[in-house]
Amino acid sequence: xxxxxxxxxxxxxxxxxxxxxxxxxxxxxxxxxxxxxxxxxxxxxxxxxxxxxxxxxxxxxxxxxxxxxxxxxxxxxxxxxxxxxxxxxxxxxxxxxxxxxxxxxxxxxxxxxxxxxxxxxxxxxxxxxxxxxxxxxxxxxxxxxxxxxxxxxxxxxxxxxxxxxxxxxxxxxxxxxxxxxxxxxxxxxxxxxxxxxxxxxxxx
Length: 204
Known about the structure:
Layout: H1 7-14, H2 19-23, H3 31-39, E1 42-48, E2 54-60, E3 67-70, E4 73-78, H4 86-93, E5 96-102, E6 109-119, H5 122-127, E7 137-149, H6 152-157, H7 174-182, H8 188-201
Antiparallel strand pairs: 1-2, 1-5, 3-4, 4-7, 5-6, 6-7
Helix pairs in contact: 7-8
């Protein structure tokens, strides 16, 4: 198998982007982007570790949980989780992040690139709290690029079409997966019960 080694090889295959694909990139959050984020309950954040390992983490909460502080600045609250902190540790070493925001049922997505910093600011954590519990921390993103991404990948995948979804019963539970992958002695039922209890008690 031969691999592509240069940008010139890549462009020879694909050609140059159209004028619209270049011009659509904005340097700030405009009214349309603000309205999109106000309705988005789910964001993916890409980051990179100091040794070059890439990571993408999902963040989800009530629509509008990614707060627009101003046209150049976003705030993303963090909630209790598994404490791996892959993305948060990456941000400390390398602030560059890429984000994709989704709105359920909408096939277009919003892409945002910029630099992030973390804060424990009490006022901001309190403001972005949920159910009476402040955010554990907040990623404050300095926006560099904002643009809409077309619907082709969603059309191809049929992601929002329930009739294309697999029957969940055909797939193993997370408890079964963890039991097998980690060679755990606990039963899958016990692991699933523990996960369900965690979901009930520590989403926020």
